[in-house]
Amino acid sequence: MEMSVTKRIAKNFSWLLAGNIASGLINFFAIIYIARVLGAAGFGLLQFAQAFLLYLVIIVDSGLSTYGSREIARDRSQAQQISVNIFSLRLLIALMAFCLSLFILLVIPIPSTIRLLFIITFLLVFYRALNADWIFQGLEKMEYVAASKLIFSITTFCFIVLLVKQPADLINIPMIQFVTGLAVALAILFVLFKRFFPFDLKKISFKSWPKAFFLAIPLGASTILMQIYDNLDTIMLGIMNNPTAVGIYNAAYRMFYIFAGVFSLWLAAALPIACKRMSEDQAGTKTFLEKFMRLTLLLIIPVTTLVCLASPLIIRIFFGNEYGESILALRYLIWALIPLAVSNTYGSLVLIPAGLFNQFLISVGAGALANIVLNIILIPKFSYIGAAVATIIAQVVASMFAFKLSQKVFDLSFGKYLVKPLAISFLSFSVFFLVYSSFSGQHSIIQLLISNVLFFAVAGVLLIYLEYGFIAGFIREILRK
Predict the structure, then answer these.
(1) Which are the contacts of 401, defined by CB distance < 8 A and separation ≥ 6?
(2) 323: number of CA atoms within 13 Å, CB side?
(3) In angstroms, rounded to a whole number, what is the distance separating the alpha carbons of residues 463 and 214?
(4) For the residues 336-345, what does the mean pLDDT come to?
(5) Which residues of 410-444 are buried (b: 16+ CB within 10 A; e: fewer)?
(6) What is the mean pLDDT of residues 358-377?
(7) pTM for this one?
(8) For the chain, domain boundaries
(9) Which residues contact 399 (CB under 8 A, 6 or more apart)?
């Protein structure tokens, strides 16, 4: 008997969550270590280089991983054929992209140390071209995805602690990431071809490359546009402002990225199931997506409110007083999490499984355009705060377009699922405010700690009280054999 949809999502999500919590914690401590060792200026320079790297990685992928994962989820018997051809195509694109970027870096007039930093950083495109996470996602073997991330994080962290001791060691960081990433990717590929299907060069079909590439173009273009949300603000801050502003903003963005990352795992666990079921059971898929949306909003709205309130604690504890200005940036930026969840649910779980790649591109493109325009207007005047506001508004625009375009597939509304999480957040905030005010004579850290703990407790109690039947039913379905 096939495992239930809820149980499969829970299994996939559990593996991804466990792996990403472990690897995420290690990466987080690595970032904190790097930020403290390099200082705000050096940290900002590193983030500036890696912001450009992300666009190269997207060009190398060109949407092929999402397309390949979708195709494998729909027909696993074609996994070998799909994998070998997409790997070959991505490696060719990686070589071309790296050579072009190397030529540009050698031509433009920049200091030699910065040029070397960019060149070594861009070597990471080869590691990303060989990354096999998308195959395991299509096969619903998320334990391998978790393992690869954990091994990479542990290895990278150990070498960073050993080899990065002062700001002058900045160049060592991308070199460590490249060497360890390439080693882990090759090891995971060996496991893939040993356990699931053999590597067979005879499966390479050059004739299939144009078809796969052009079908994946809307997804690749969408990913490029999505990165505009993620790091165009970093690039524009580096150009319009200075490395210190980039470092301050990225300290806040790193914290935002942790919570956005947990949601992306939840999304990744559901994607192969949505792809598989979309063509088999429309009614059942709609029921599943409604449950997904309801549970997502129940959790993400109170969490967003809590992070906003706890931002002084979060920044001071993890990044130190040098990053005090990051507190306000995080308080703004975290609110992008709610429209992000809505837009990705409609886009990634409705439009992509339905094969509406162009519609997905339109929704993402609308948000990206808003982000570009708002960054140009707001960053010169408001610096990193303007960048955070631009991100929020861009996500709202993208969610509106994704909602409208997804109506062609399902009449899936999210408004009815907003009332309870908003009520929970409001009541919990009221308790937070009363407690915080009553401790006005205490040390600010103690005030914040007690108030936020009570917010969390009240939100948890209200969540269970108001949605006990739904949560209990969800847990029963997960535990059902």
Answers:
(1) 343, 362, 363, 366, 367
(2) 33
(3) 46
(4) 88
(5) bebebeebeebbeebbebbbeebeebbeebeeeee
(6) 86
(7) 0.65
(8) 5-417, 418-481
(9) 339, 340, 342, 343, 346, 367
